C-alpha cells in the first residue's frame, strides 16, 4: 500500500526528510536537559557553586529554546508535507474516477467515493503527519533516554524490562481487534453520506410531499448507526490510554521506591535519581506515543485500503492498443447485441438487437417504461460495453475507437438534464470550448433557446446556479440540446429530451434539426408519437427486444403496439 501511495508525495518529498531531521535535533536537546539538571543538583548545589548553577542553567535554557525551534520547524514541515500529499492524493483519485465507466462507479457508489475522497484522505494525511514526527521522535527518545538511564543506574533500569513487554502485549491486543471495527465504521459513514446526498438532490420532492420529518428520522437512524459503530471501535482504543498511564505511573513509583533506598544506602545521588525519573518519564511517554501511532495506523489502515481500492480499480472501458482516432461517418449497427448490467449474468436487459442505421438517417425509438430504450443508446458512445455481439459506428466496432474520439463524435442529451454552476455561456461551451458567440447563438436558435435566454437581463451571461436552478425544466432541456449541437457531432441522441416542452416547440426543434443537421445521424427517444412520426424509421422496443421497425405508415398497418400508442395519444389530444 505504501508503494501505491508513495508517488503522490511528489515534490513534497523534501519535507518528509527535513521534518525527521529536525525531530532528531529536538530529541537530542530534550534528552540532554535531564543530564544537565543532575549536574546542577549533584555538583552546583552540592558544592554551593552559584556560578556553575547559572552556567548550566543558561545552557539548559538554550537547549530548551533550540528544542522549541526544532519542534516548531518539524511541525511546519509535517503540516506542509501532509497537506501537499493529501492534495496530490485527492487529485490522483479524482482523475482515476474520471476514467471509470458507469459500471465502476455503480460498484463503489457515489456516496462511498465522496467519503474516500474526504474522510479517508484526511485520516491518511493525519497518519502521515504523525509518522513524520512521532515515528522518528518516539523511537529515538526511547533509545537515548534508555541509554542515559542505564548509564546512571543499570540495575534500576531493569524496571523497563517488565513494563515494556506488558505495554507491547496490550497494544497488540487492541490493534488486532480494532481494525475490523474501524472498517465497519467507515462503511456506516458511506451509508450516512448516501442518505444526505439523496436528500439534497431530491429536496424539491421532499418538500412537495411534506416528507421532511421522514427524512429527518431516516438521517437520525444513519447518524445513530455511525455513532454506534464509532463507540464500538473506540471502546477498544480507549483502553490504551489507561493501560499506558498505569504502566508509566507504576514505573515512576517503582523507581522512587528502589531509587530512594539506594540514596539512603549512599549508592546513588539525589540529582541522579531526579534525572533517572525524567528519563523514565521520557521512555514511557515515548512508548505511549508509539502506541498512539499504532492506534492511529489502525484507523488509517482501513482508510488506506479503501483509497488503494479506488486507485487499483481497473476501468471497465479502456482503449485498445492502437485505437482509431477519428469517426468518419455516423452510421450505427447493432449486431446481435445482448446486454446485462450485472457482469457474468444471463439476465439480459437487451436481447439479440439487430438493426442498421444509415449515416444521416433519423430514427425514432418508442417503447414502454423499462423497455431499455436509454440502455440501447448508451451503448453507442460506450458508456457501457455490450455483453454479447457488437455495436459498430462508422463501420467499425466501438471498442476499436479511442474512447475520447468516439464520444466527441456522439452528442447525447440524457434523460436527466444536468447543468453546472456558472453562466449559460459557460455551460453551452461544454459542447465546444472554443465556440464563438455566433456559433453559440445558432445552436440556441436551433434548440429554440435563444429567445428565452435573451429575455434574461444578463442574456448569455446569466448565472444558472448549482444544477441550473434558475431555469425551468423545459428551458433546461433546450439548453442541453444546444450544448449537444455545439459539438457538431456525427451522431445526435435525444433521450426523451423534449418531454418538458410543448408540442409546438418540439415541432420547431425537429424542423431545425432537419435543416441544420441534414447529414447527421439523429436518434430520438420519445414518449409522444408526434415527436418521432416524421422520422425516417421508428423502432418499437418491448422488453428489451425490437418488436418492429419501419415508417409511421408501415407501423400503423402492421404494429398493434404502435397503433395502440398512437390511438391513445390522439384520443388524449382530442379530449
UniProtKB/TrEMBL annotation:
Protein localization: Cell membrane
Keyword set includes DNA-binding: no
ABC transporter domain: residues covered: 332-568
CDD domains noted in UniProt: ABC_6TM_Tm287_like
Molecular-function annotations in GO: ABC-type oligopeptide transporter activity; ATP binding; ATP hydrolysis activity
ABC transmembrane type-1 domain: residues covered: 17-299
Transmembrane segments: 53-79, 134-152, 158-175, 236-259, 279-299
This protein's record includes keyword Lipoprotein: no
Keywords: ATP-binding, Cell membrane, Membrane, Nucleotide-binding, Transmembrane, Transmembrane helix, Transport
Domain of life: Bacteria
A cellular component term, taken from the record's GO annotations: plasma membrane
Xref: InterPro entries: AAA+_ATPase (IPR003593), ABC1_TM_dom (IPR011527), ABC1_TM_sf (IPR036640), ABC_transporter-like_ATP-bd (IPR003439), ABC_transporter-like_CS (IPR017871), P-loop_NTPase (IPR027417), Type_1_exporter (IPR039421)
Entries under Pfam families matching the protein: ABC_membrane, ABC_tran
Membrane topology note: Multi-pass membrane protein
Name this protein carries in UniProt: ABC transporter ATP-binding protein
Amino acid at each position: 500500500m505504501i508503494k501505491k501511495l508513495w508517488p503522490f508525495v511528489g515534490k513534497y518529498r523534501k519535507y518528509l526528510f527535513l521534518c525527521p531531521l529536525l525531530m532528531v535535533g529536538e530529541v537530542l536537546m530534550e534528552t540532554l536537559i535531564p543530564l544537565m539538571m543532575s549536574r546542577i543538583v549533584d555538583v552546583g548545589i552540592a558544592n554551593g557553586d552559584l556560578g556553575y548553577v547559572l552556567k548550566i542553567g543558561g545552557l539548559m535554557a538554550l537547549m530548551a529554546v533550540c528544542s522549541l525551534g526544532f519542534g516548531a520547524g518539524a511541525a511546519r514541515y509535517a503540516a506542509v508535507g501532509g497537506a501537499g500529499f493529501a492534495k496530490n492524493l485527492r487529485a490522483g483519485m479524482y482523475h482515476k474516477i474520471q476514467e471509470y465507466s458507469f459500471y465502476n462507479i455503480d460498484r463503489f457508489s457515489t456516496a462511498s467515493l465522496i467519503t474516500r475522497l474526504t474522510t479517508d484522505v484526511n485520516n491518511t494525511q493525519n497518519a502521515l503527519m504523525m509518522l513524520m514526527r512521532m515515528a522518528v521522535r518516539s523511537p529515538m527518545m526511547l533509545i537515548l533516554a534508555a541509554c542515559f538511564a542505564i548509564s546512571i543506574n543499570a540495575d534500576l533500569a531493569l524496571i523497563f524490562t517488565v513494563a515494556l513487554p506488558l505495554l507491547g502485549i496490550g497494544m497488540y491486543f487492541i490493534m488486532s481487534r480494532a481494525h475490523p471495527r474501524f472498517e465497519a465504521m467507515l462503511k456506516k459513514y458511506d451509508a450516512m453520506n448516501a442518505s444526505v446526498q439523496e436528500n439534497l438532490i431530491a429536496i424539491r420532492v421532499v418538500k412537495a410531499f411534506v416528507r421532511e420529518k421522514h427524512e429527518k428520522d431516516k438521517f437520525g437512524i444513519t447518524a445513530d448507526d455511525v455513532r454506534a459503530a464509532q463507540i464500538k471501535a473506540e471502546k477498544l482504543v480507549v483502553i490504551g490510554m489507561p493501560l499506558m498511564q498505569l504502566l508509566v505511573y507504576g514505573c515512576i513509583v517503582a523507581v522512587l521506591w528502589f531509587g530512594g533506598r539506594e540514596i539512603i544506602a549512599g549508592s546513588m545521588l539525589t540529582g541522579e535519581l531526579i534525572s533517572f525519573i525524567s528519563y523514565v518519564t521520557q521512555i514511557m511517554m515515548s512508548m505511549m506515543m508509539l502506541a498512539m501511532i499504532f492506534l492511529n495506523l489502525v484507523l488509517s489502515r482501513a482508510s488506506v485500503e479503501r483509497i488503494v481500492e479506488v486507485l487499483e480499480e481497473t476501468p471497465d472501458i479502456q482503449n485498445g492498443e492502437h485505437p482509431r482516432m477519428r469517426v468518419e461517418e455516423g452510421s450505427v449497427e447493432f449486431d446481435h447485441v445482448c446486454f446485462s448490467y450485472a457482469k457474468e449474468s444471463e439476465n439480459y436487459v437487451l436481447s439479440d438487437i439487430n438493426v442498421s442505421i444509415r449515416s444521416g438517417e433519423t430514427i425514432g425509438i418508442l417503447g414502454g417504461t423499462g423497455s431499455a430504450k436509454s440502455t440501447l443508446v448508451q451503448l453507442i458512445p460506450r458508456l457501457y460495453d455490450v455483453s454479447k455481439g457488437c455495436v459498430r459506428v462508422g463501420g467499425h466496432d466501438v471498442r476499436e475507437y479511442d474512447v475520447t474520439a468516439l464520444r466527441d463524435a456522439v452528442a447525447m442529451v440524457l434523460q436527466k438534464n444536468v447543468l453546472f454552476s456558472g453562466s449559460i455561456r459557460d455551460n453551452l461551451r461544454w459542447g465546444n470550448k472554443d465556440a464563438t458567440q455566433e456559433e453559440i447563438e445558432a445552436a440556441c436558435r436551433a434548440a429554440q433557446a435563444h429567445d428565452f435566454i435573451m429575455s434574461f437581463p444578463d442574456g448569455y451571461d446569466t448565472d444558472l446556479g448549482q444544477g441550473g436552478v434558475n431555469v425551468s425544466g423545459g428551458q433546461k432541456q433546450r439548453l442541453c440540446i444546444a450544448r449537444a449541437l455545439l459539438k457538431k457531432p456525427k451522431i445526435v441522441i435525444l433521450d426523451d429530451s423534449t418531454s418538458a416542452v410543448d408540442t409546438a416547440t418540439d415541432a420547431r426543434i425537429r424542423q431545425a434539426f432537419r435543416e441544420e443537421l441534414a447529414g447527421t445521424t439523429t436518434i430520438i427517444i420519445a414518449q409522444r408519437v408526434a415527436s418521432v412520426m416524421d422520422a425516417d424509421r421508428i423502432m418499437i422496443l418491448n422488453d428489451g427486444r425490437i418488436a418492429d421497425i419501419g415508417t409511421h405508415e408501415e407501423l400503423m398497418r402492421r404494429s398493434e403496439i404502435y397503433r395502440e400508442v398512437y390511438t391513445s395519444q390522439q384520443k388524449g389530444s382530442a379530449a
